[in-house]
Structure formats: structure tokens, C-alpha cells
Specification:
Layout (H helix, E strand, L loop, with lengths): L10 E6 L5 H12 L4 E3 L2 E6 L1 H10 L5 E9 L4 H9 L12 E7 L8 H20 L4 E2 L6 E7 L4 E6 L21 H10 L2 H6 L4 E3 L6 H10 L21 H21 L3 E5 L2 H13 L6 E5 L17 E4 L14 H13 L5 E6 L2 H5 L7 E7 L2 E8 L10 H25 L6 E6 L7 E6 L2 E7 L7 H19 L6 E6 L18 E5 L2 E5 L14 H10 L4 E5 L5 H8 L4 E6 L2 H13 L8 E5 L2 H7 L4 E6 L4 E2 L8 E2 H14 L1 E11 L8 H6 L1 E4 L1 H4 L11 E6 L2
Parallel strand pairs: 5-6, 5-7, 9-10, 9-12, 10-11, 12-13, 18-19, 22-23, 22-25, 23-24, 25-28
Antiparallel strand pairs: 1-3, 1-4, 2-3, 4-8, 7-8, 13-15, 14-15, 16-17, 17-18, 20-21, 26-27, 28-30, 29-30
InterPro entries: 23SrRNA_methyltr_KL (IPR017244), DNA_methylase_N6_adenine_CS (IPR002052), RlmKL-like_Mtase (IPR000241), RlmL_1st (IPR054170), SAM-dep_methyl-trfase (IPR019614), SAM-dependent_MTases_sf (IPR029063), THUMP_dom (IPR004114)
Catalytic activity: guanosine(2069) in 23S rRNA + S-adenosyl-L-methionine = N(2)-methylguanosine(2069) in 23S rRNA + S-adenosyl-L-homocysteine + H(+); guanosine(2445) in 23S rRNA + S-adenosyl-L-methionine = N(2)-methylguanosine(2445) in 23S rRNA + S-adenosyl-L-homocysteine + H(+)
Family: Belongs to the methyltransferase superfamily. RlmKL family.
Amino acid sequence: MSSNLHTETDLDVWVTCPNGFHGLLKREIADLTGQTPADWSQGVSVRGELDIAYRLCLWSRLANRVYLGLGQSSEVSVDGLRELVESVAWDAHLRPSGTLRVDFHGRMDGIDDARYGGQKVKDFIVDQFRDRHGVRPNVDRDNPDVTVYVQVRRKRIDLGIDLSGDSLHRRGYRQATGPAPLKENLAAAVLMAADWPERVRDGQAFIDPLCGSGTLVVEAAMIAADIAPGLLRKRFGFEQWLGHDRSLWNDLVSEARQRRQTGEASMPPVLGYDADGGVVARANETLERLGLYRQARCYHKPLDQWTRPTHLTLKPGLVVSNPPYGERLGNKPELLALYRRIGDLFRNELSDWTLGLLTSDAVLARETGLRAGEKHRFFNGRIETHLYVFTPGERAAEPSPAQTEQDEALRNRLRKNLKQRRKWLKKQDIEAYRLYDADLPEFAIAVDVYGDALHVQEYAPPKDIPEDKARQRLLHAMAVLAEVTGIPVERIELKQRQRQKGRQQYERQSESGEFFTIREEGVRLRVNLKDYLDTGVFLDHRPTRTWIQKQAGGRSVLNLFCYTGAATAHAYVGQAASTTSVDLSRTYLNWARENLRLNGGKPDHQHRFIQADCLKWLRENTERFDLIFMDPPTFSNSSRMTDTLDIQRDHVELIEQAMRSLNPDGVLVFSNNFRKFKLDESLIERYQVKDVTHLSVPEDFKRKRPHQCWHLRHR
């Protein structure tokens, strides 16, 4: 059925698009329709005949959805909504026996839920049908004849019909992809911003050296072949709409098919390359289904093996790529070499081509060593990205002499530290140690070696250092670390460390579950570099753990605030008669049990693990122990505790309660890492107190005193 209901009067057509596309979409609409589009709250609007709406559904490469505007109201209320909906003659759009769906967006007084808003609009519509025809349409959420669109804003309600159906970015060609594919309309926006349509008319070629599943290649090929993206779609939202003019639509489709034939015959080469043969194969399958395999093709080739193709005659044109940019900071250092390689290729192999680089990371973009002539902002989902356009003949960005000098200084310091560490590592059975701790002011990081992995903690940079500059230094430091240590960047875990309160240092940061074992003085300890701020072993307490191991033979040992029970494992290996480990965290007590098992022990009545607030437990304890180790946090306000713990304020009671649990000839090892901590004079008068900090700080922590430590005995 066709209708001329909407062909005699100008229609309001509303078009939505992703963030960052607005200017490009207005230009595209003007080119497609010959009309000058206007701004609309959710995108762009244009007035004209039905032909315009159909052309946008068929040809727009940037739009998400196309709506037919039915009305607007400045009365933002339930009554205003009812009046607006009831002003439309719905039987001109939908059969009484048809189906509908309502997409409601926004809130107003009386409607604070989109589903409830949709229900109210549906009720207004079906009530009109029931009054006029005695029957009403049904709701179909999956495949309705008409989808009604409602957008509520602070000062206006928009009411329309969704002509597009599914989002227009879903062209219909994508079946299987690689990881993190670009949306089709984002790929098209990147190509349009880099003037690919104009380059096609000039016969220029296209290359994507990191094509992945080939979205940029496919979209570039479709533009080059003049293929309307809507030709591939199986369904549009207007097909069961009563205002649909099938004859007009069929004419537009026939025109598009003819343009495709002409475009395919003259399109320039479009090429893609990737190191993943699987995604390359799937990209080629898509090109074959589109009938574009003759002029557009993807090849299996890693970037480090890439050279300018010689098997085709290519007119220098456009290179566009969307290299990985790493959502997590710790993933970025391994990308430095990738971006540097892109810069090298552009300077050496593709110097007469234009390069478009889409990335979310300005620091990585600078690593290309290129200076962008243009920069466009787009959003890849919620990730803000920028398209950097580098044109031939532009002067490359000069490398920073200061950065080069800083990198070399760090390289030399790391080599020096490694050489020094090896001297004493050979004498001891140690696999985990500190390699570097902010030795140079430009690189405020702490670097710990754990076997064949590195744990890097970045201290918060000074406020006068720009964020981009601090991040660039950090990524350079990671690259230098990998170079000097020989540990690949994927085995380097990076975290930002700031001052922690209470048990924040113990809170879960990730969910990798990646544990492995290190060896220390014959003791095996379980560590995890990813999931928590700390790793499961405080490296600066290594000498104290060794001392406990040597003193534990035949003794009863109490480990308070035991964390993952490293000191307990040392005591067990030292043949302690019994061990008792107390901590508030069930997670870390389970970890402590695993450390005991790793060393041949078995949690039982002889080796106990108690979940409790240590101070409360000490107050109620009636047992006595020969050796007590207590390393409390500086501050703790865990929800499981009855009171907060402040080590400076509460250490007198903590120590007195611990001494009450200590046998007459026993020893309490007390330490903490609060830099301003001062031991109360009353404790020195009451007990034999020996400051052993100089003995408890290991060789790799001598540069900065990480803790203080005392031995306390009864007088």
C-alpha cells in the first residue's frame, strides 16, 4: 500500500548521531538532500518531503536513527504529554489491528521511569484507537509495525515515529569480528573527516596497516564503490508504516543499485593488513559477500614486517588506522613501540600519503614523532578519542632532548642498581626485591622484581607537572624498564600509589586471579601483582621474617595483623611449635592458609587462623606466646571493627595488650610504616625496648627508611 499522505507538505525529519559527528552529519545531510539542516536537541533536523527521510535512511553513513517528527510541546507534564499524543491521528500511521512499540526517553513530574513513560504513551494511543474503531493495536517489542519515539527534555517534549528501525550503523554486513571492533558509522566519520570521498574522486588508494576485523577497510570500500549502506539492511522501521510510499522507496533503491554498478567499476584499491590471520580472513569474507574482493582486500602481515605494497599500482592517498590504545594504563607501555613503528612507516614508506590516526591517548599519538595538521574529536562508545591527521610535507615533531636525557639517566641508574643488587642476591635465596625507588626526581616510581615479573607503583606526580607530561614520563619509564631488565612489558604491572587510609591498601583492584610463587630464604610465598594495591608480601620486612624464622624453633608464635601470613610461613619453616595468625580479613586469612600449605604445613589446632579485630582479640585473649610479631596499619576504619585504629594514638594499648600475651622470656617484634611515628616514653620505662630498625631494613630499601621496628621484652 502507498500513500500520498505525507508528500504534499514539508515534513520534519530528525536525525541522531554519536557525539562528535554533528558537524559532519550536517554536511552529509546537505550533500544528500540539497537542504540546509538545522540543530536539534538530539542531533540535526531538516524539513522536506518524504524523499528526504528515505534518502537519509538509505544513504547516511553517519546517522544512528531517522525520525519523522509528529509534534512538539513546551508543556512538560503528564497532561502536556497526553495532549501532544492525542493531537496525532494515529490511524493515519498504524492499522487498528497493527502492532506498536514506544521508545520513551527522559523524565518529568509524575514519570520518573522510561518504562512507565512508554506505558502511558501506549495507553493514550490505544485509547484513541478504541474510541474510534472499537479495537486497539497490540504491543510488539521486537518487530512492531510502528515504533513511537518520545524524548522529554527540561523545556520540551518531542514526539515522532522511528523510520530507521534498528540503528543505521548496523549495515547488515558484519557477521563475525575481532576484539573491540569500531562501529560502522564511527569508521565512516573518520574517513569523511580525512576527506576520503574527495580522494576517491581523484583515484587515490586507501591502506589500513592495522585493520583488525576490517571495519575501516569495508567502509572505505563502500564509499569508494558508491554503495549506499542501507542497501544491505533487511528491514527499516517505515516498511509497515501506513505513510510508507513503496513506489518512491523502490525508485530510490533502484537508483542506488545503479550507482553501485558504476562505482564498483571505477573504485581505487582499498587494502588492509593485520597480524591476526583469523580476523583478516573474516574481513575478506565480508568483502567477498559485498562483491568488492577484486579491488578491496586484506592481507595477513604484522606491522613490523610491513612495507609499501609493490604488487599494485597505487596512487598515494590515505592511510587510516585505529591502533589499540589500551584502556588500562598498565597496558599502554607495550604500545609505545607500535606507535613509533607507525611514525617510522609514515616517514619512510608512506611519506607522500596522508595519515589518519584514531586514538584516545595523546601521549601515544606523540610517540609517532609526527605533528598533526588537524585533530577531530569522536567518541568510541564512552571513550573519547581523537583523529589526528598528518599530511605529507609537514615537519615531523622534534624529539625532546630533555626526555631523551631523562630516559638515558633512568637507564643508567637501573643498570647500576641491578649490578649492585646481584652482589647480595647471590648470597641469599631471594626472588623478590626492590630495584628502584624514585632515585631520580623525574621518575617517581617504585619498581619491585618478582621473579620474571615487575611490579611498578607510580607515586602521585607534583601538581605543577602537567598530566600528559607525567604520563609520558611514566610510559617511557616502562619502556626503559623492559629494555634494561629484559622483562617484557606484558609482565610489568603498573599501579598508581597514593596515600592509603586504613585497609584501602588491601582492597581488591582487579579480578585476574593470577597468583604465582616466589622463594625467600627457603620459604615459598604466594603473590598476586594485579588484584590488590599490594602484592601479598611486604618486601621491606624480609629481614624481620628471616629473624623470626631463625628464632621460631620450638616456640609458640603469634602473628597479629597477619595479612597473608608470610611471617607465619617463615615461622613454620623455622620449626615453630605452634603458630596463631589473627587478621580481620577472611580473604587474607585464606591466602595465609595457602602460604602455610605451600610450605608443607596444615591449618589445624597447632597452626590456627583467627578472623578478628586484633585489639579486641588481645583484650579477651588468655593465652601466652613466646614470640609475637605485630605490624599494624597506620590507620584503619574497617566496617568490621568496633572502633577505628590510629597507630600513633592506640599503640600504647596495643603493645601493652600484646605484652600481656607474651611469656616472661618472650619477645614482641613491633613495627609500623608511619613516617612520623614516635614510640611513647612510658613504654621505654616499662619494658626493655631495643630499636632494631637499622637491622630490619634490607639492603634494597636502605635509600628510604620504609618502617621502624623495635624488640620489646619484659623487664
